[in-house]
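Moderator note: this is an archived Q&A kept for reference. The question asked for a predicted structure of one protein chain; the sequence and the answer are reproduced below.
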Amino acid sequence: MSIATETRTDAQVQSDVLAELKWEPRVQPTEIGVAVKDGIVTLTGWVDSYTKRWAAEEAAHRVRGVKAVANDIEVRLGTAGERTDPEIAAAAVRALQWDALLVPEKIDVTVSKGWITLKGTVDWQYKKQEAERVVRNLAGVKGVSNLIEVKPRAQPAEIKKQVEEALVRSAQTDAERITVEVDGSKVTLKGTVRAWAEREEAERAAWKAPGVSQVDNRITIGL
């Protein structure tokens, strides 16, 4: 049976997620519990920073056979890690202002009980991701809600052209097996590829196009 079509058992997925957590230097595997049912991974336990919680979720998503991740890990800050909401808000604003990739974007920051909410409008998906990355690592943060909107400055035809060219450039995707549809700023990917990694790479390529606000990845895995 090929890797592309192999159906993995929940026990295999659980074993690989645990192994991936041991490989992830930002978390201690003993802090995290892993349960798997029908390919859905549930992470439990508690950690002392939001960065660790996010890193554990990211590690689980990297494992082949994982369909989705339910992150029930709690963030419990020690006394040294506690920060007031005004302190966190001030630190977040400074971090966003000093990030060269986000100048001159205006991003609004709200903090409630250690949880940061980001709002605003940017023209690239990578800027939305960068804003979250910047505040995610601040001391005292317990979570981040990224409500930043991506508003396109490019027309649908231009977005389609950019995505198709990105797929052709990528060494990890077979562009001839993937079709691209654009509705406004939403990109829909269709087709059949040989491996999950190729499907993921196609989605990453689509997100890099300027003005893309949503990617609907309908690519299937086959021979």
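Archived answer notes: Residues 1-5 have pLDDT under 50 and may be disordered.
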